[in-house]
Design goal:
There is one protein chain. Strand 4 (127-129) and strand 5 (135-137) form a beta hairpin. The protein has helices spanning 5-27, 31-34, 77-82, 91-122, 140-158; strands at residues 37-41, 47-50, 59-61, 127-129, 135-137. The chain has a 3-stranded antiparallel sheet, with no helix packed on it. It has one domain (5-158). The longest helix is centred in the middle third of the chain and has 32 residues, at 91-122. It is mainly alpha-helical. The protein starts with a helix and ends with a helix.
Length: 161
């Protein structure tokens, strides 16, 4: 089985980056809800927002959270009145659901990393595409480096197993 360097790079860099973005988005609260937000205008008239007041003219602003796409804010008033306005999911259930999603993503990435590593180990040749678009076979050192990177990714997503 032969893979082009472009395919190797896409597999090696794109999936972990997307996984990291998903993990961070699912696992961490938004920065706006974590603390104060400051607004100021610089000398060129550009408006800036930050979590730190970098100038004396910076003023604290209140950021209102967006209404959720589903849940109590989108339910009919009659339904909200029936359940006393209580949310159908508790905060603990939401956290568990988020953790389950992160675990599922991690398991999926683990399987992909294992498959990629198996393909790399089984391949007699790995191809690389140079900047001019010409394909060539990886040197033994390049193949070792690509294999090491695939092993590191497998270790990161699967914990070594």
């Amino acid at each position: 089985m032969m893979m082009t360097m472009r395919q190797v790079k896409e597999l090696a860099t794109l999936r972990p980056l997307l996984s990291l973005v998903l993990l961070v988005a699912c696992a961490l609260p938004s920065a706006a809800s974590a603390g104060e937000v400051y607004r100021w205008v610089d000398a060129d008239g550009v408006v800036h927002y930050s979590d730190r007041a970098s100038t004396r003219s910076a003023e604290s602003v209140t950021i209102k959270p967006l209404a959720p796409a589903s849940g109590a804010a989108t339910r009919p008033a009659s339904q909200s009145a029936q359940d006393g306005g209580a949310s159908s999911e508790t905060a603990a259930a939401k956290t568990k659901n988020a953790n389950d999603r992160v675990a599922a993503i991690r398991a999926d990435e683990c399987e992909k990393a294992k498959a990629r590593l198996t393909k790399f180990r089984a391949a007699d040749r790995l191809l690389i595409t140079d900047p001019e678009g010409v394909q060539r076979e990886m040197t033994p050192d390049e193949k070792i480096q690509a294999l090491a990177q695939a092993e590191e990714q497998e270790q990161a997503f699967c914990g070594g197993g």
